[in-house]
């Protein structure tokens, strides 16, 4: 039995070795016995090299089974069976080789499945690749300690590696952001996420992916059955689990362990302010690890109770001396927030033609009432981060890249002052509404922290009519109106829609009412699906306004889009439509951040051009237009907005709507105070809460 095991092992390793040596010798002969030139040729002609190696492998397999190699096979297998040290060497070489292969898979996904970039990175970052491979050993040791089987552990490790790598590659493709450790906080919602991602792939891509999965499984099944299995003793498994724990701790805490020195010697240079570059330069392993133990919010220098109270009291004093800009003509009107999923104006794609305007109602309302644009802190996803800004008045700019405040910060607090708590202090009832899974982004817990009286979700809503795969915006409209009519006290309703969520498959709706032209047929079809969805949303907005006009109670309605839609992989449709600005990153960032903003009222309120503003300023802007008394914190936000109406990671916009300017001393101080107060409310002791809020 042992002889069969090692005969099978030799079959695999000897033939791989013979194939590589044969091709290398052949290339060396062709290149005038110059080994360096032979290696360079293999790097420059990767596909040809792989094809030659594959052919050589098949040839060596045939020869290996010939009579000529029978004696060698039997002697080698017998030697390995009887020689303990050879067996140990074989197992160690197999484990080390596996770690290099597994790390290579991860890095291949990191390089966007581009073999040339993959090879270039390994050449330029060889030390980082070797050190990262040592980290991958912990995963292999872990499975080896559990199963005690050499080949099965490789199969399981490879399965995990492929899943992580594929998830990372897809996130980079659609959102332009790498996979962060914080993303795993959403792992419990994987059942909801998979259909969203899978729906973005064409039938043929899914078919090819399924074929590759079957091929890989079949390949490993053959290896597993043909090579039998090499089992490890219980005491060996104990050593492997100890090594696994040691490596796990060393790398997951690498800034505090010996790995830090190794990383520095390997030229690992963490780039925290640009995470795509961080992952690109340092590889997936150290890009991921560098975000593992990073707090979402660093403590600002000088944070103390005395400092916070000094800032808060100064703001309160200024707020008390400020005269109201407008008289409050209506006491405590209803307030309705609708953060519309991926709501954007596609007619901004100038070289694309639409058979009719997809947003006629919204466009007309924006002409009649206060309107402008929201500067979303995200692109294509991260809805909860936009919602976080709108409800709290705080900014994503001060948090680390990849932060999810709902999961990382707010979930750990019993209370955070928000527009919800502010309105409830004025005897408002509050209702949160989201036509999807209530635990997504931990909204069920976060809304409790914010102080919502009630949370309606896909399982508790009465109106559940579908449009495509999600509950329609029209159903959300009916749900809002039912609740407004049924309550006697003034109501604050905060609704987050789902109808226009990515992906936009061509068969999402039975038919589309607007034709799109000017792009490729595939892009036209995807864009038509998106346009049909927002056209239906536009109709739902019109329906809501009509119902509000019939409502006796005075009501304010605020609508904005959470972010731009994902159109094509790597913004392919935007690029095809010439919407990108490759030579001006700040201009492009602003273009990919602006979504429509509308503030409507069924009674007389002033009309203003709101221009571009961050979601954090929606609350104070609404209070100002309605003539409602503002808490001191909103007075402070109004001052910040007067200087810097647009604030997001990587971008500031001033009152002249410019993104390229030098910050004045006043602007610098406002940002410092803003950051200090935000830390106090989110992470610190909330010294400012009683001073700045009712």
UniProtKB/TrEMBL annotation:
Taxonomy, superkingdom: Bacteria
Pathway(s) per entry: Cell wall biogenesis; lipoteichoic acid biosynthesis
Compartment list: Cell membrane
UniProt cross-references to InterPro entries, sorted A to Z: Alkaline_phosphatase_core_sf, OpgB/LTA_synthase_biosynth, Sulfatase_N
Domain Sulfatase N-terminal: 333-628
Bilayer topology term: Multi-pass membrane protein
Pfam families: Sulfatase
Membrane spanning residue stretches: 12-33, 45-64, 85-106, 126-143, 150-169, 203-222, 234-252
Keywords recorded for this protein, A-Z: Cell membrane, Membrane, Transmembrane, Transmembrane helix
Name this protein carries in UniProt: LTA synthase family protein
Originating organism: Fictibacillus barbaricus
